[in-house]
């Protein structure tokens, strides 16, 4: 029997989940709904979804499983709206939001109606948005957190985890508060810190424009995520505000401690500060998940970049490698440009590097 899966929101995460489900669940029919018709037709023409239904109530009534893949504030409203519909008794409703306490609290309206809600959060993604960045391998080897309510039946939990096998993610069960504490430090704080650092650099760039051209290496690494969608991060910050306020206070204290040891020129303590971080960072296990850090980018140094774009894309087409994005990053005194070309997977990235090395004089680096 066909399984009717309703995807609400076909952006980066919704489309990646849809594509991964299509890999393994052959009897799934993926129905798409979003507030953006153009996106829905685009996703259908890219075969990410099988059908479009512009009537949310009707689409929800027909669904066996509903995925909410929208910004957190929209997910909260949709949960409320779904609770007013007459859904299938066996329906499983799940979400992908980056916070869980507020969403699980809101989901009580569904539980009160006897419906099943299982919170979800795939712990991989990227700073990119939209269905064109969707990738069936996005969650490979990443953790996919599920937050049960205790009301779901075993077979419903199994149905959801079966559906997620195509993601090739590792399922982890957490409670909502534990989830928000962990992601507060490991995911939300880094975005706030990256955003603030970019603003601090921007102030300097205004005073001294040459500094913009010098931004490289470590600055680029630590600030990549500052290019993420501001709406998404507004919602996440507001939703996890209590935990984030505490962590920001903690951050300020620790940074001020560092300022003190710097001021008093305590060399050993300054060394210890960096040494402890290095030790901890070096010991963090590297799990090669699909796309954290969320992208497979090749940076190519090119003189005369308009001509080089055509040259490089022609070579990639010839060796049959599809790219998902191409961007001119910066110019050096208008003599050199850097092309950033993004690929869907590591294999294409390495093949592209090889092709560029073989067929062009341009230097390229993987970052
Ligand atoms: N981007 C990432 O790396 C990750 C994001 N998440 C979470 O996944 C969710 C979706 O994020 P992305 O896919 O990255 O965002 P996205 O911007 O790529 O997609 C958002 C989708 O929601 C739809 N949408 C927005 N407002 C809507 C409304 N009022 N009604 C119906 N649809 C609406 C958009 O049309 C779009 O399809 C967010 O809650 C985010 O916190 C979770 C893990 C990783
Ligand atoms: O781009 C990155 O590295 C991210 O940080 C992706 C990300 C964004 C939000 C999440 O809830 C989980 C992962």
From TrEMBL:
GO BP of this protein: tyrosine biosynthetic process
Assigned EC number: 1.3.1.12
Keyword field: Amino-acid biosynthesis, Aromatic amino acid biosynthesis, NAD, Oxidoreductase, Tyrosine biosynthesis
GO molecular-function terms, A-Z: NAD+ binding; prephenate dehydrogenase (NAD+) activity; prephenate dehydrogenase (NADP+) activity
Catalytic activity: prephenate + NAD(+) = 3-(4-hydroxyphenyl)pyruvate + CO2 + NADH
Pfam families with a match to the protein in the record: ACT, PDH_C, PDH_N
Protein name, per record: Prephenate dehydrogenase
Originating species: Vagococcus carniphilus
């Amino acid at each position: 029997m066909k399984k009717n899966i309703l995807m609400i929101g076909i952006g980066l995460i919704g489309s990646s989940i849809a594509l991964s489900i299509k890999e393994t669940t052959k009897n799934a029919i993926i129905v798409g709904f979003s507030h953006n018709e153009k996106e829905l037709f685009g996703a259908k023409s890219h075969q990410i979804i099988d059908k479009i239904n512009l009537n949310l109530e009707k689409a929800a009534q027909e669904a066996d499983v509903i995925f909410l893949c929208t910004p957190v504030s929209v997910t909260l409203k949709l949960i409320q709206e779904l609770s007013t519909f007459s859904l299938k008794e066996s329906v499983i409703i799940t979400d992908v939001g980056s916070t869980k306490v507020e969403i699980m609290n809101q989901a009580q309206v569904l539980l009160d109606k006897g419906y099943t809600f299982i919170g979800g959060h795939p712990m991989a993604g990227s700073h990119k948005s939209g269905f064109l960045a969707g990738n069936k391998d996005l969650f490979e080897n990443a953790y996919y957190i599920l937050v049960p309510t205790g009301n779901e039946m075993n077979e419903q939990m199994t149905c959801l985890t079966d559906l997620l096998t195509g993601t090739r993610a590792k399922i982890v069960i957490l409670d909502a508060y534990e989830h928000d504490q962990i992601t507060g430090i490991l995911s939300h704080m880094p975005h706030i810190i990256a955003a603030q650092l970019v603003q601090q650099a921007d102030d300097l760039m205004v005073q001294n424009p040459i500094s913009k051209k010098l931004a490289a290496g470590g600055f680029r690494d630590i600030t990549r995520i500052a290019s993420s969608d501001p709406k998404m991060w507004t919602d996440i910050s507001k939703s996890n505000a209590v935990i984030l306020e505490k962590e920001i206070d903690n951050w300020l204290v620790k940074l001020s401690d560092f300022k003190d040891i710097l001021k008093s020129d305590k060399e050993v303590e300054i060394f210890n500060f960096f040494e402890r971080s290095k030790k901890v960072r070096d010991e963090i296990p590297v799990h090669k998940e699909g796309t954290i850090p969320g992208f497979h980018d090749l940076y190519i140094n090119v003189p005369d970049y308009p001509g080089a774009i055509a040259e490089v894309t022609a070579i990639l087409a010839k060796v049959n490698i599809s790219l998902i994005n191409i961007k001119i990053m910066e110019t050096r005194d208008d003599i050199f440009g850097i092309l950033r070309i993004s690929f869907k997977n590591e294999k294409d990235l390495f093949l592209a590097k090889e092709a560029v090395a073989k067929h062009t004089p341009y230097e390229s680096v993987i970052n």
